[in-house]
Amino acid sequence: MVTDQTQHGACSKPDGATKHHWFSRRVKAAIWVLAGAGVGVGFCGALFIWAGFFDVAATSKHSWPATLLLHYAMERSVAFHAPKLDAPDLDDPILVGRGARHYASGCAPCHGAPGELASPIAQQMTPTPPGLYSAGRDYTPSQLFWIIKNGIKMTAMPAWPAQERKDEIWAMVAFVKHLPDFNTESFAKSSGWIGGADFLYEMVPVESGGAFNPVPCGRCHGADGRGRNGASPNISGLSVPRFVQVMKDYRDGAKPSGFMQPVAASLSDEQIEQAARYFASLPTTGSVP
């Protein structure tokens, strides 16, 4: 009886090989279920897209879960991809001023500025370009540099036009860091910007066949063309051939600059010639851009 009971007990307990076989079967079954579910979800997603049910209209906006997910994905991507960089002195007023002057015409139409709302066009984008008053706290200088340099996919945030111009990108980082310190008056003084819808026309400082308007160029280079105490190159007294060649190089991309290329790209040969003659007539102190 003892022997039979012992044998019966031994037979009633699965050995190690049986347990392993049982566990393997369960794992395989779970894998097949998950794989089948994945295929099913993928097929339904493909069918959803193929049928055109996904609404790509900007007016439909993202749902709040999608907004949170996309923003979180962006933040994690920036944190992963942005290398730690040695920043210049981001408190340098010349650097901050350079960033302010480009921000006024290049960034404010979408992000707004002190005393200036974003363009109604930008306000209808999906996602809506955010205000940047907290960006200096939300991101490190290295992360801001990466964002400005590379842009953000699936938004209207472009990459910097001149990738090699780190000095220009750092100027933008410096300004964004100090953006909360500006009010309407100090921003206008630093950027030379008077606000309003003039940004729509500021990029074209010369009317074809008309007189040269130095005000837009003067925002960065000064009314006298001398560069506003080193913030921008001194272009006063620059020879006409040299000025024309530099501007055409900017326009064609041969001379990289995220500040100057958008300006030069909007000018015709006639307009460049008019600007060249104006600045060539000014007294010079000998700096060449």
Give the tags.
289 residues; Cytochrome Bc1 Complex, Chain D, domain 2; 54% helix; 13 helices; mainly alpha
* Shape assignment: elongated
H/E topology pattern = HHHHHHHHHHHHH
Q: Which CATH top level class of the domain at 77-197 fits?
A: Mainly Alpha
Helix/strand-derived category reads mainly alpha
Mean of pLDDT? 85
Tell how many strands the DSSP assignment holds.
0
Instruction: Note the total helix count.
Output: 13
Proper CATH architecture of the domain at 77-197: Orthogonal Bundle
pLDDT < 50 runs, ≥5 residues = 5-10, 196-204
Set out the fold topology.
Blueprint: H1 2-12, H2 16-50, H3 64-81, H4 93-106, H5 108-111, H6 135-138, H7 141-150, H8 166-178, H9 184-191, H10 215-221, H11 240-252, H12 260-265, H13 269-280
What does this structure look like?
There is one protein chain. The protein is built from 13 helices and no strands. Helices cover 54% and strands 0% of the residues. It is mainly α and 289 residues long. The protein has helices at 2-12, 16-50, 64-81, 93-106, 108-111, 135-138, 141-150, 166-178, 184-191, 215-221, 240-252, 260-265, 269-280. Among the domains are: 77-197, Cytochrome c-like domain (Cytochrome Bc1 Complex, Chain D, domain 2, Orthogonal Bundle); 206-281, Cytochrome c-like domain (Cytochrome Bc1 Complex, Chain D, domain 2). The chain is elongated and about 100 Å long. The protein starts with a helix and ends in a 9-residue tail after the last helix. It comes from Afipia felis. The chain crosses the membrane at residues 29-53.
